[in-house]
């Protein structure tokens, strides 16, 4: 059965889900295509212990489950925000320890979110400054164009 990305109405920030049969597996090539990761990054995630349980298919290739796809999506979000591999590993360790670590996982994600919010404020300030500087240069360019344009003859000269 092919996978079909399911999008949610509105912007509720839920992760993308994949409609699959529970028995469905994905090859390395499938996971690369679906996740957008390259094979080296996928192997790095495995080597780091961030994803585990990929099995071998009947032909000797790697076989991944829908759960692997969901983990990869989550890990990609963490990685794209600059979470360190050590913090990602810590989160995975907490997850594997079970429900008794839910509060610790939430706290780790909250701390990371606050770090991102601080970075976003810094970026907003820098963007405002860049907007001002670009506007300054646009005004200067326009002034230079006006200054170098030949003046039209006055009506008194005509």
Primary descriptors:
5 helices, mainly alpha, 158 residues
Write the topology of this structure.
Layout: E1 4-6, E2 17-19, E3 26-27, H1 28-35, H2 39-47, E4 55-56, E5 62-64, H3 66-80, H4 85-97, H5 102-148
Antiparallel strand pairs: 1-2, 3-5, 4-5
Helix pairs in contact: 4-5
Describe the structure.
By secondary structure, the protein is mainly α. Helices cover 58% and strands 8% of the residues. It has helices spanning 28-35, 39-47, 66-80, 85-97, 102-148; strands spanning 4-6, 17-19, 26-27, 55-56, 62-64. The strands form 2 sheets. A 3-stranded antiparallel sheet has the order 3-5-4. The chain has a two-stranded antiparallel sheet with strand order 1-2. Helix 4 runs antiparallel to helix 5 (102-148). The protein starts with a strand and ends in a 10-residue tail after the last helix. Mean pLDDT is 83; it is low at 1-12 and 14-21.
User: Which residues form runs of ≥5 with pLDDT under 50?
Assistant: 1-12, 14-21
Q: In DSSP terms, counting alpha (H) and pi (I) runs of 4 or more, how many helices?
A: 5
Helix-and-strand structural type: mainly alpha
Taken in chain order, the helices and strands follow as EEEHHEEHHH
Distance between the termini: 83 Å
Write down how many β-strands occur, each being a DSSP E stretch of 2 or more residues: 5
Global shape: elongated
Write out the strand line-up for the largest beta sheet, numbering strands in chain order. 3-5-4
State Rg.
26 Å
Q: Strand count, sense and closure of the main sheet?
A: 3 strands, antiparallel
Instruction: Give average pLDDT, whole number.
Output: 83
Task: Provide the β-strand percentage band.
Answer: 5-15%
